[in-house]
């Protein structure tokens, strides 16, 4: 395995394990560690005033250190105490898979870390966003249950054919924006492609709507009142830029409601408005209200139509509890209800998420079709017929019969047997020498093979994915692009060595390093680097070396003049040092 497991991870199905990759902790450079430390020190200082109270408590409970990028092996030892776990992945993964991980109480953490040039914000998921943003809040039991429940419902949301195309485009943009040296024209082209896709998505799918809910709560949620909000969303908790931006009056604060599902967002821009929930319990209330609108709970003709439009593996559940999983190809409707459905290719039948014996993809390799509904002129549905009723209507073994359903569907053949559940209710009726027609159109004709007719008065549920995950080979994940690892120049390698030396000095591993020589090297070789100079300033102040501290400040002023865009980052770093120095005094 590429990761160290724990009792929570042991429960993950195989198709989710395909997304997991090793963290490779040794690949983090000293500059990466410095970026983490700067962001975390700044965040903890600022967020202690504006974040929900669970944040600081959660940092301790989940093993998130201010000084070191978290090692997921260590995190998992601590997370298992609250019933969660964490795994590393490569950037964005498909939304349904991301949410299914949540349903298993597993945090998905993009293990790469943003470049120093993107220290305030990156559109790419990284370990600052995932580890420092998502992990601490799950220590709150009520929020953790919301996250799990969100994943459980969200992974059943049905997509449409354009959703995956948009996901791939967003993933590509996040990768090239974070990659060093990507030409601006390439980034602009990728951005325009996303905008074009977003403008031509048509009616938003369920996955698009629930992704909006996820964005406005899990990623960018505020809690409290619009007048006095606190931060709990991971996107805000992990961005030193947006955590300050979101508190400004120009950012509109809206009471949270189901309207958030119909409010789109732009992942590449600071958000102009945010939603504020009064408490974590209200998040679950809105989630359940939204779930009531999903095909998962409404089923019916529209649910089947959503599955057909998705062109993805999905499932329906009939009123008997019988579940059919496959790629739905067509449906015949009558008076607003489905009266016949057809899948194409490998199909499996299940009951209560467990495949029915003899009804896997081997048996139904070319598809499965069946009528739905009541028999014409008979008020009692087949599923509600007792053995005497079935015999009265000639529905029993060895009888040749023609079943005439409402909506013009007819099934004619010799009944071979029936399949019942543990309660005795009939789920399937199996025929031989069978014909299925719709008015005068032949839908199916069995020759040598038997035909199993599903029993169900109605379609009560339609959802993404298979009913039984073991029925299909789901290990098919392929990505069009992967995170771009920068080539490290000899000059960059030397700079990383300087960062490493100062880190070792601060941690007491090697106190013989000349910090003055490091500053000289920065001034002569790396005049635009500012973060290591801030760390040198911190050490100078801690050691009471006032003259050296003043020299560093003078150098930082030169850096600010040469690159005004980093001026506020330098000032914030210096202010952090000053504040900590005052507290220590």
TrEMBL record:
InterPro entries per UniProt: ArAA_hydroxylase (IPR001273), ArAA_hydroxylase_sf (IPR036951), Aro-AA_hydroxylase_C_sf (IPR036329), Aromatic-AA_hydroxylase_C (IPR019774)
UniProt keyword list: Iron, Metal-binding, Monooxygenase, Oxidoreductase
Entry protein name: Aromatic amino acid hydroxylase
GO molecular function, one term: oxidoreductase activity
Cofactor(s) named in the record: Fe(2+)
Domain of life according to the entry: Bacteria
Organism: Pricia mediterranea
Enzyme class name: oxidoreductase
Higher taxonomy: Bacteria, Pseudomonadati, Bacteroidota, Flavobacteriia, Flavobacteriales
PROSITE patterns, A to Z: BH4_AAA_HYDROXYL_2
Pfam families, A to Z: Biopterin_H
Stored PANTHER family: AROMATIC AMINO ACID HYDROXYLASE, PHENYLALANINE-4-HYDROXYLASE
Presence of the UniProt keyword Lyase in the record: no
Annotated ranges, domain Biopterin-dependent aromatic amino acid hydroxylase family profile: 1-340
EC number from the UniProt entry: 1.14.16.-
Family note: Belongs to the biopterin-dependent aromatic amino acid hydroxylase family.
